[in-house]
Amino acid sequence: MSVAWSFSSLTQYRNCPKQYHEVRFLKNFKEVKGEEALWGDRVHKSIEKYLTDGTPLLEGMDVWLPILESFRKLRGTLHVENQLAITAGFQPCEWFAKDTWCRGIIDALWIDGTVAKAVDWKTGKRKPNSDQLALFALMVFAHYPAVEEVRTKFVWLKPGVVDPTETFTRDMIPQLWQLFLQDVKRIEYSIASNVWTPRTSGLCSAWCPVVTCSFNGKRRQGDAL
Predict the structure, then answer these.
(1) Euclidean distance between CA atoms 70 and 24, whole angstroms
(2) pTM of the shown model
(3) Nearest to 66 by CA among 128, 150, 155, 165
(4) N or C, which end of the chain has less CB nearby within 10 Å?
(5) In terms of domains, do 146 and 97 share one?
(6) Hey, is 117 helix, strand or coil?
(7) pLDDT tens per residue across all 225 residues of the chain
(8) Residue 117 sits in the same domain as residue 24
(9) How many structural domains does the chain have?
């Protein structure tokens, strides 16, 4: 059975299949955004407006102006919060198409002939993950056939750190897909077998919304009363 996925949903399955099943598949529980996540949403929206029409950043965000100005000078056609989707045959499709297989949102994307530049703004602690950048590149290659090279990077706003550029070329597509296909097959196997093994970690007691899981911190606290 084919399943639509994104980098965030794949990461959730990797962290805990049971949480993925309860939240993403059955929708028995909702992930409630904390204050940091809500603040991150405001940051992304403010940067989007600044890059597209020069709207001043929200109060307290001016400290990032030097970083953002360097990106405003990039050559190419700018696409912000660019929603890209593909089919299981690696063909571009609409976001909500019936045969959508993979979805991804690129915070800022510049298309300049055969070169694309993709940037992801991060508002949390610095924790680079090249897999996410690789998926950005794969989505760009699918949607922009003329692009031969995708230059990607994370921008960590809190510490004001711009990561080195990671570059992907079109001839790397087969090896890049190997970063994801095995885990996608695991999800499909879980769906077919209805086996969703919980995986305990430090995240269980911190924020997991699946309170029916024996590993969940809220459940343990309730049992202790």
Answers:
(1) 38
(2) 0.91
(3) 155
(4) C
(5) yes
(6) strand
(7) 578 999 999 999 999 999 999 999 899 999 888 888 899 999 999 999 999 999 999 999 999 999 999 999 999 999 999 999 999 999 999 999 999 999 999 999 999 999 999 999 999 989 888 999 999 999 999 999 999 999 999 999 999 999 999 999 999 999 999 999 999 999 999 999 999 999 988 777 667 889 888 888 654 444 433
(8) no
(9) 2
